[in-house]
Amino acid sequence: GAGVSQSPRYKVAKRGQDVALRCDPISGHVSLFWYQQALGQGPEFLTYFQNEAQLDKSGLPSDRFFAERPEGSVSTLKIQRTQQEDSAVYLCASSLSRGGTEAFFGQGTRLTVV
Amino acid sequence: DQQVKQNSPSLSVQEGRISILNCDYTNSMFDYFLWYKKYPAEGPTFLISISSIKDKNEDGRFTVFLNKSAKHLSLHIVPSQPGDSAVYFCAASAGDYGQNFVFGPGTRLSVLP
Predict the structure, then answer these.
(1) What's the confidence (pLDDT) of residue B93?
(2) E runs forming strands in chain B
(3) How far apart are CA B82 and CA B4, in angstroms?
(4) Any chain A CB within 8 A of the CB of B34?
(5) Tell me, what's the pLDDT at B99?
(6) What is the mean pLDDT of chain B?
(7) Taking CB atoms and an 8 Å limit, are A103 and B99 in contact across chains?
């Protein structure tokens, strides 16, 4: 596709359930980012990949959050034992290279933990 | 402590007039700044950017101004159109990766017909 694609668009999880969120970046984009956006706030950085290497995971809020990009393309954000405070929109972005270029965002996955 | 601040949660402007959205930052290491626009139920869309070596960048109706000494940037939209109504996020980046963007909380712009 032409843009960043995320699936599912919406996910409702029961508290304690594990979830996996998928991101298909723009083909050829080296950099991939995950952000978390709470209602009424700006996106907050979670983690960054350059190709398959996870170079920065400083924004992951707890060890229940795990991200991977094994082949340097598709990425998965996994949240184990979901809690209500995990409810947010999870945004994926990709960019052609590092430094000096904009990132293109997907539509996001809205996660609601009940 | 917010590194990127947008102190106006909302702004209303008449169609045809100028919209000015403001953004302040605290981290002097930031060297690249971007504005994103977001419609409901969509991801942020890149609008315009500016490097710290410049103080102005213009793209059609959109102009971004950077005042490094004041750690302040602003987005000017002129003339404003109803389709510009959206939430606008200011973002900044620095460091080795250059793109670990730090976002502000956003300003909701409403352009009234």
Answers:
(1) 87
(2) 4-5, 10-14, 19-25, 32-38, 45-51, 56-59, 62-67, 72-77, 86-93, 102-103, 107-112
(3) 27
(4) yes
(5) 57
(6) 93
(7) yes
Mean pLDDT of B17-30: 96
Low-confidence ranges of chain A (pLDDT < 50): none
Q: If you compute the radius of gyration of chain A from its CA atoms, what whole number of angstroms results?
A: 13
Nearest-Cα distance to chain B for A45, in Å, is 7
The answer to whether A77 touches A18, Cβ cutoff 8 Å, is: no
Residues with Cβ < 8 Å from A19, sequence gap 6 or more? A11, A13, A78, A79, A82, A111
Find chain B residues with C-beta within 8 A of A33's C-beta: 99-101
Is residue B96 pLDDT above 70, yes or no?
no
C-alpha to C-alpha distance for A94 and A101, rounded to whole angstroms: 10
Residue with tokens 């977001």: B38
What's the pLDDT score for residue B108? 97
Q: Which of B32, B42, B100 sits opposite A100 (nearest CB)?
A: B32
pLDDT for residue B8: 95
Instruction: Kindly report which listed range (A4-18, B6-20, B31-45, B72-86) carries the lowest average pLDDT score.
Output: B31-45
Q: Do you know the residue count of chain A?
A: 114
Q: Which residue has the tokens 């956006």?
A: A37
Q: Are strands B19-25 and B32-38 parallel, antiparallel or unpaired?
A: unpaired
